[in-house]
Amino acid sequence: MELPFPARLSRELLLRQESQPRLIRDIAWKGQVRLCARYRRLARTGKPANIVTTAIARELAGFVWAIARQVTVTTD
User: Fold this and answer.
1) What is the mean predicted confidence (pLDDT) over 23-34?
2) Is 54 helix (H, G, I), strand (E, B) or coil?
3) Cα Rg for the chain, rounded, in angstroms?
4) Element (H, E) at 31
5) Which tens digit of pLDDT belongs to each residue from 52-70?
6) Distance of CA 44 to the CA centre of its chain
7) How many domains does the structure of the chain reveal?
């Protein structure tokens, strides 16, 4: 079974993140590192792919929530 690559930032992703505040980029990177490692760990134990993906998606929701709490909403 081929496991995914380690956490990294592509050139395209770096360009998209340039305009984001440092705090948000830090949360996103922390999530990237943690979720990549967690995916590899769960997949290595032989869990079914849909179980692994669901677990990662649930944890990803937590990181999205953390970022959403940091964003200031402006209304026009």
Assistant:
1) 92
2) helix
3) 15
4) helix 22-44
5) 999 999 999 999 999 999 8
6) 19
7) 1
* Residue 3 in tokens: 């496991």
Q: How far is CA 63 from the centre of its chain?
A: 7
Domain that holds residue 62: 22-70
Is the sign of the CA dihedral 22, 27, 31, 33 positive or negative? positive
**Where residue 75 falls among pLDDT bands split at 50, 70, 90?**
low
Q: Report DSSP state, residue 4.
A: P
pLDDT score for 6: 77
Q: Residue 10: inside a domain, yes or no? A: no
User: Is residue 4 a part of any domain in this protein?
Assistant: no
Average pLDDT over residues 22-48: 92
What phi-psi label fits residue 46: left (phi over 0), alpha (psi between -120 and 50 degrees) or beta? left
